[in-house]
Design brief:
The chain contains 32 helices and 20 strands. By secondary structure, the protein is an alpha+beta fold. Helix 2 packs antiparallel against helix 24 and helix 6 crosses helix 7. It starts with a helix and ends in a 17-residue tail after the last helix.
């Protein structure tokens, strides 16, 4: 209210505002200290054993569904899985014999792996093998076998791809919890199963981590796993040996090594899966028969030795089956002497896999190029996980950092120039300043303000960004105050410069508000409370309720702050109702997944804690910096404009500027302005006894009814007395009346001089502006963040979310959030523009304020994971490096067996296939500005 009444410049009011601010600060500190921490606080007390077993059963079903589908897509059951045998590894790779237990025996089935694990006292097992020897599929078979024999109280086997772990920066438990949350986003209780010891981790691909991380990973496994906790680790033999040499063995773990496939096993498998042809006597034969017979007849021939060696791994057997068994190609070409070179043979088999997989597709050649591009990106980022929300890392550095912001900035700049040509350079200046502010906030914040464990860092980044904006605003903003609002004048000096500076500050505040909401930083998929067409209906109902809540109070001529308040309240109440309605099931309807019961108090407390502290940091830093810079400018500014000084006998001093305006100061420090010549004006006398003077051109509409008008012609003075706020007009007769509109005829520089404030007053005004705006922004953002966190709790289901599902969920959440922000932004823009117009008569600012507010919603959409994917597609698909229907293509590659699904991400079928496709992809020009290191 003090802000709207223009009383913030008064010392008493400022003291009250500061007191209120410190009260809010104390409240936020108490909220910080009393807020429940961690996931346990979100869910209440520790769950019962029965509840844990129910969750474990649901997780086991989800894991079985996920890997059973992958098992079928790889055709491992068609006609039967290859028998992969193993034997004990070399003794130097194993811990001391007394630590491991009985000697490991040979085996060839997943059930035998389970027996080996149970026989080892430590319940730790390491599976070694050469590239393509079947380590991952053996691990998957072990998982499916354990789940088939799962009983309440047993641990649920879960595969954790070690390629996504950075042991130098993240502990083992934190990474495992993050992987479970990403793979099963609806199972918010999965972390509790992990802490309760009901998860059996299967760590796949130690060798797929960077070599520099091998030793660190082994040390963390040894120090962070509990004694007796069952664990299975897979790794290439050579990589594990290097890790042992630089670190240590996996303590007390049994180590087995997969043995090469026998040629008879491979021959029988290829003959069984090959396309049948008619034999000489009508018997069943395949094109593999003469080739295999030749290799048996001459086993020592160079080509035979190479082929037999290559076919000792399940990967190369699968490649050969795809290249010859699934197509009409004749494997007799393998008898060619050029295949005596192992590298040539392996490259030949890998080259034929993608064309064979896409044999019936009209874009087989394009698919090869697109997959090569994706593989090259993963190789540069040293990862196996193909996550759609990380594809932006392949963009050039400016786009990789600020892509959506730059795109929306270009669109907004074009709209500002096209829609508001009368504003001149002011419209594009505001747009550029706003985009600069959002980009500054997005870049400086980097990570989410509310990230746990980084509160001090987040606050420091907010302060840095606010100081930068404060310096710029204080350097270009006016040193005079508007008498109606006690705020800095916006219509003095270069209008575009001041507009751009304040727009940049607003852009920074917008970025920080988005940060409080948790949508700034590394874009990750989010999950909305509603799905499909239900989300559209829910949003429409909430918006209609908010509109009704806004316009209904206007019928009763309420204060300006009432309509937006009732709009927010109506929308929030209806949203709560929709949330409860959606969670229930109608009689007779098919059962729906229940939503996770979010803790509203916890979400609200956390949102308020983050919002208030962030808003206080923003407001204090921006207010102090702006006030200091503007106050320093006012202190060193000259008392008069440039010109010859004149003195009157009564002590009055004045200067005549080049445009003829007289700038004078009376002995009591009252300032006045005199136009260059006589003016035509009208004195308006109202029935209540008040009298105003205005230019004749603007007074014709008021000279009706009870208003008595008297015209005059002559010289006037516009005087600002120290004890008054509104300027007075000294008429040619010497009488003083209140000014109505003469001040609008004053040039900008003269106007600023007339209303120039002292350094102390200016400091208090800017400081109060920064504190009230910052705390107000923090309060609203905190409430919105808490309500948003409560509303978007994911569906309570353990079912693994695939890439397509996570993209759909994120799109619904982003659009819902964006539409809501746009709706409330428009309401706020209308209220702000009307208030601005009534206070200053600047009705032309309505469109600019509205356009600026309309950008808030699109920003929240475009900086989401889905929005980043749109920008990535515009760049990558526009230049032909990836298909426009990218997600459909990735799913097609998955269905054809080229990719495999690991939770919400894809992976190439094998690391060797990824390496081969990347090596044959066309080279990409390096980023000239910054190396593509995969970071923001």
């Amino acid at each position: 209210m003090a802000f709207s009444n223009g009383d913030l410049g008064k010392t008493s009011v400022l003291t009250a505002v500061l007191g209120f601010g410190f009260s809010l600060f104390g409240l936020s500190v108490n909220l910080w200290k009393s807020a429940p921490q961690g996931e346990a606080a979100d869910e209440g007390s520790a769950p019962s054993r029965e509840r844990l077993e129910q969750w474990a059963e649901r997780l086991s079903g989800a894991v079985e569904e996920q890997w059973r589908a992958e098992w079928r897509l790889r055709r491992l059951q068609d006609p039967y899985p290859l028998e992969v045998r193993w034997s004990p590894a070399e003794a130097w790779l194993v811990d001391a014999p007394g630590e491991v237990g009985p000697v490991v025996t040979e085996g060839d089935r997943a059930e035998d792996i389970a027996s080996v694990l149970e026989a080892v006292p430590s319940r730790r097992l390491v599976v070694l093998g050469e590239p393509g020897s079947g380590k991952t599929m053996l691990a998957v078979g072990f998982i499916l076998d354990r789940i088939a024999r799962w009983a309440p109280g047993d641990r649920v086997p879960v595969l954790f791809p070690l390629s996504s772990w950075q042991p130098e920066h993240k502990s083992l438990r934190d990474w495992m919890a993050a992987h479970l949350a990403a793979t099963h986003p609806g199972a918010s209780w999965a972390g509790k199963l992990l802490r309760a010891g009901l998860v059996l981790p299967v760590f796949d691909g130690l060798d797929e981590m960077p070599e520099s991380s091998w030793a660190t990973a082994l040390r963390r496994l040894n120090t962070e796993l509990d004694p007796g906790e069952p664990v299975v680790v897979t790794c290439r033999t050579e990589a594990y040996a290097k890790a042992v040499e630089t670190s240590d063995v996996f303590t007390a773990a049994a180590v087995i090594e997969l043995r090469p496939l026998t040629f008879e096993t491979v021959g029988s498998y290829l003959a069984r899966t090959g396309r049948p042809v008619r034999g000489k006597g009508g018997e069943r034969a395949t094109r593999w028969d003469p080739v295999l017979e030749e290799f048996r007849r001459c086993p020592d021939a160079p080509v035979a030795r190479t082929v037999r060696s290559a076919f000792s791994t399940p990967l190369m057997v699968a490649m050969a089956r795809a290249a010859y068994g699934d197509t009409g190609r004749d494997p007799a070409e393998l008898l060619d002497s050029r295949f005596a070179d192992p590298e040539v043979l392996e490259r030949h088999l890998l080259d034929g896999f993608v064309p064979a997989a896409f044999a019936d597709s009209p874009r087989a050649e394009q698919a090869r190029a697109w997959l090569g591009e994706l593989a090259a990106q993963l190789q540069r980022q040293t990862t196996r996980q193909l996550a759609w929300w990380r594809l932006r890392r392949a963009l050039p550095w400016p786009l990789r950092t600020l892509g959506p912001i730059l795109l929306l900035g270009c669109v907004a700049l074009l709209l500002g120039v096209a829609w508001f040509p009368a504003a001149g350079v002011k419209a594009p200046a505001m747009m550029c300043g706003f985009i600069l502010g959002v980009g500054l906030g997005y870049t400086v914040l980097g990570t989410r303000v509310s990230t746990r464990g980084r509160r001090a860092e987040g606050a420091a980044r907010v302060v840095v960004a606010a100081v930068l904006a404060g310096v710029l605003v204080g350097a270009v903003a006016s040193t005079s105050l508007d008498w109606t609002t006690s705020l800095p004048n916006a219509n003095v000096g270069p209008a575009w410069l001041g507009a751009a500076a304040f727009a940049m500050a607003f852009g920074l505040a917008t970025a920080i508000a988005l940060g409080v909401l948790g949508i700034i930083g590394e874009p990750l998929p989010s999950y909305a409370a509603f799905g499909g067409r239900g989300a559209v209906r829910a949003v429409l109902v909430v918006l209609v309720s908010a509109v009704i809540g806004f316009f209904l109070p206007l019928l009763f001529l309420v204060p300006p702050w009432v309509p937006p308040t009732t709009a927010v309240a109506a929308g929030a109440l209806v949203a709560v109702g929709l949330r409860n309605w959606h969670g229930g099931a109608c009689p007779g309807a098919s059962p729906r997944p229940r939503r996770a019961r979010g803790n509203f108090r916890t979400a609200l407390v956390r949102g308020l804690r983050t919002g208030l502290l962030t808003g206080l940091a923003l407001g204090a830093a921006f207010g102090v910096t702006t006030a200091t810079v503007a106050g320093a400018r006012a202190a060193v500014s000259a008392d008069f404009p440039a010109g010859a000084m004149h003195h009157l006998t009564d002590g009055t001093r004045y200067v005549v500027t080049a445009d003829g305006w007289v700038h004078g100061v009376r002995p009591n420090d009252d300032r006045y302005l005199r136009p260059p010549g006589p003016v035509d004006g009208v004195v308006e006398a109202y029935a209540d006894g008040t009298t105003y003077a205005s230019p004749a051109a603007t007074a014709s509409e008021d000279c009706t009814g009870s208003v008595r008008c008297t015209r005059f012609h002559g010289r006037i003075e516009l005087e600002l007395r120290s004890s008054r706020t509104n300027p007075q007009v000294k008429l040619p007769s010497g009488a003083y009346v209140e000014d109505s509109a003469f001040q609008t005829e004053v040039p900008g520089r003269s106007y600023e001089w007339l209303f120039a404030a002292s350094p102390g007053v200016l400091f208090r005004s800017y400081l109060s502006l920064g504190l009230t705006a910052g705390l107000g922004l923090g309060l609203v953002s905190g409430l919105a963040a808490g309500f948003h966190a409560w509303m978007v709790s994911p569906i309570d289901t353990a079912r693994a979310a695939g890439p397509q599902a996570t993209l759909r969920f994120d799109r619904i959440a982003a659009i819902t959030r964006g539409v809501t922000l746009v709706a409330f932004g428009v309401v706020a823009a209308v209220v702000a523009a009307v208030a601005l117009a009534k206070a200053s008569g600047q009705y032309d600012s309505f469109g600019l304020v509205l356009l600026t507010w309309l950008l808030v919603g699109p920003f929240s959409v475009f900086i989401s994971a889905w929005g980043w994917l749109l920008v990535t597609r515009l760049w990558m698909c526009g230049n032909g490096r990836l298909p426009w229907r990218l997600m459909a293509f990735l799913e097609e590659a998955h269905q054809r067996g080229v990719l495999r699904q690991a939770g919400a991400t894809y992976e190439f079928r094998h690391a060797r296939l990824q390496e081969h496709l990347a090596s044959s992809a066309p080279p990409t020009e390096p980023d000239p500005l910054r190396p593509n290191d995969g970071r923001i």
